[in-house]
Structure formats: C-alpha cells, structure tokens
Amino acid sequence: MKRVYNFSAGPAVLPEEVLKEAAAEMLDYRGTGMSVMEMSHRSKTFAGIIQTAEQDLRDLLAIPDNYKVLFLQGGASTQFAMIPMNLMRRKKADYIITGQWAKKAWQEAQKYGKANVAASSEDKTFSYIPDLSNLAISEDADYVYICENNTIYGTKFKTLPDTKGKPLVADVSSCFLSEPVDVTKYGILYGGAQKNIGPAGVTIVIIREDLITEEVLPGTPTMLRYKTHADAGSLYNTPPAYGIYICGKVFRWLKNLGGLEEMKKRNEEKAKILYDYLDSSSLFHGTVKKKDRSLMNVPFVTGDKDLDARFIQEAEASGLVNLKGHRSVGGMRASIYNAMPREGVETLVDFMKKYEKEIL
Ligand code: PMP
C-alpha cells in the first residue's frame, strides 16, 4: 500500500491516524460486534459517539452554551436555502460576494426575499477580499452573509465585517477548525465536513439560540427548520451516523495535538513554505492579493496552459495528486488542509523547484 499526497479541495485528505483507527474498528466497534455503520442511531453506543463528538467540538472552538451544534445532511449547499428560510423574517439580507459559493448562496436567497450585495470582488475574478471598512448594511437586514474562506480562489477574510449589529452568517466549509475563532462574533457558522473535518454527508451548523425560532418562512419543510434538529439533538431522523463518528475522531485528533492554536501554527508554517516559494519563483506565481491569501487553498499558475498541464501530469506521476485548479480559474491549486502533513508541502515545493529548473 502506498498513500499519495492528496491536494484535493474536497473531499480531501484525512489524518492517517483517524483512518487507521476507523479501519481497526470496522468489523467490531468496541465489543458491540458490529460496525458503526450498522448500528442504530438510537443505541446507547451511538448516543455516546455523537455526544462525545459534540463536546469535543465545543471544547475545540470554546462554543458558548447559548449556541447549538447541529449535525445535518444536505451539504453546505442546502444551507444556502435553509439560512434564508429560517432567518429572513423581514425578508432582507446583505451578502458579500467573494466567489462562486457566496454567489450561489446569494442567488438562492433571492428566492425568499431581498438579497442585497453589500460588496463584491467579482470585478477581478474574486482575487481579493473587498474593503470592509464601511459596508452598506441595510437598516432592516435579517443577517449579513459571508463565505469566510473561498475554496476556489484561495482568499480568506482576515477580519470579519462590521455587520452593524446584524447577525453574521458565515460559510466556513474550507477553513473549519484550521485556527481558533471567536464564535460569539457569529450568528451562524456552518460548513460541509468534507474538507477539514470528515467525510462528505455531514454538515455542521453552529447557531446562536435566539436565531432558532418557529417563525420561519411559510412552507419551510420540517427537515429544513433549525428548530426541528435543535430540539432533537440532531436525531430527529437518521443522521449521517458513520460520518459523525469519523468527524468525532478528527475532533479528538485535533485535541490530542494541542487544539486549534497549535493547528493554526502548523497551518501557517505549511502555507509559508509554499507562498515563500511562489514569491521567489520565476516560473510559478500565486493568483490572489497577498494580504488576503488563504492558509488552506493555494492557487498558482505558470502563465502557460501547456506548462500547467504538464506540471499537473508529472506531479501526479510522482504521487502529488489533485493539483488541478478549479475549472473556472485554471492552473493549479494545492489544498493544504489540517490533515496535509508538512512533508507533503515540502515534497510539493521540491517538485516545483525541480520542474522550474527543467523548464527555465
Ligand atoms: N461552500 C464552500 C466554501 C465550498 O468550498 C463548497 C464546496 N466545494 C460548498 C460551499 C458546497 O458544498 P457542498 O458540496 O457540501 O454543498
């Protein structure tokens, strides 16, 4: 067996320790004689798994008691509708458009009310985060929406916008648990698990309790009401049980390595190795404004499509896989999530140096 360095944007690399543990527990989870996949979600054993996972996540992010943690399904994309359906009581929200995912969320919200654009970076292919110093926030906005880390373009909000008292809703799919955050600054933070946390199929929503009410838009299905899931402790119906179990193992892995401060330190070190090289290279260069660079997704190009394609192909043959950029941007993108070891980034940079020498 040989594992590759997997730079996929998601589903993405998971910690090897977690995969090994899951493999060891596959046929007989701790004396139950069955795998977690085969187990009732109403069993005592599964109750232990989901409660421990939630507590570990609460510990990692220091989630205050007035926030609920929901383990849902439907991916981040289902939240694009669920957020306005549950929050747009005055039928108005402000969106900051920093990429395709924010744009999709904004387009979806227009089905339910007035979704304004408070700022956008579309004029320069989303290669920067717009100026947040004086946003035009609507007086009667129900919430302000951001996509905090832009997976496709490789930008990240380094400061949060001043929402002028409105609840901040953030899609953190591609920066979840990559560094500490102050949960109290958000009304909702949410993301699909398949980048930094676990398998696809689990969506984690952390939501302030006062935003969970019965007053949802008329016609909102039971399954799309936050209250349904909050009241039932994420067990209203069958949850993505195996996925939650793996997420729980990743939370424990993070705790054991020292929590999010330590994770942030490691992520900064890893990203610096790659960005420093990009800044010094005569062949490769980064595509976004330096101050807005993501620690998780690093897009880069040579400026020549054929050289890009050859690079991706040769890298793949050397065990550095999934480096192709998103189809809307082209070039390359290295996603270096929590579980990507430092050696993976070092190996990539060594390979890039070798390629540069060959070409120039
Ligand atoms: N938001 C962001 C920031 C993403 O990167 C993605 C997926 N790449 C999505 C939303 C959509 O997620 P899902 O496929 O879980 O609906």
Give a topology summary.
Blueprint: E1 5-6, H1 16-24, H2 44-61, E2 67-72, H3 75-87, E3 92-97, H4 100-109, E4 114-120, E5 144-147, E6 149-150, E7 155-156, E8 168-171, E9 188-192, E10 203-208, H5 226-231, H6 241-256, H7 259-280, E11 285-286, E12 297-301, H8 305-317, E13 320-321, E14 332-335, H9 342-359
Helix pairs in contact: 1-6, 2-6, 3-4, 7-9
The structure holds 4'-deoxy-4'-aminopyridoxal-5'-phosphate (PMP).
Binding site for L-glutamate: 42
Keywords: Amino-acid biosynthesis, Aminotransferase, Cytoplasm, Pyridoxal phosphate, Serine biosynthesis, Transferase
EC number: 2.6.1.52
Question: What do these coordinates show?
Answer:
It is built from nine helices and 14 strands. The protein has 360 residues and is an alpha/beta fold. It has two domains: 240 residues, Aspartate Aminotransferase, domain 2, CATH 3.40.640; 101 residues, Aspartate Aminotransferase, domain 1 (Alpha-Beta Complex), CATH 3.90.1150.10. A seven-stranded mixed sheet has the order 2-10-9-8-5-3-4. α2 packs across α6, α3 runs parallel beside α4 and α7 runs parallel beside α9. The longest helix is centred in the last third of the chain and has 22 residues. The two termini are 35 Å apart. The model has no long low-confidence stretch (mean pLDDT 97). Bound molecules: 4'-deoxy-4'-aminopyridoxal-5'-phosphate (PMP). The site of 4'-deoxy-4'-aminopyridoxal-5'-phosphate has 11 residues, from α3. Keywords: Amino-acid biosynthesis, Aminotransferase, Cytoplasm, Pyridoxal phosphate, Serine biosynthesis, Transferase. Catalyzes the reversible conversion of 3-phosphohydroxypyruvate to phosphoserine and of 3-hydroxy-2-oxo-4-phosphonooxybutanoate to phosphohydroxythreonine. Its EC number is 2.6.1.52.
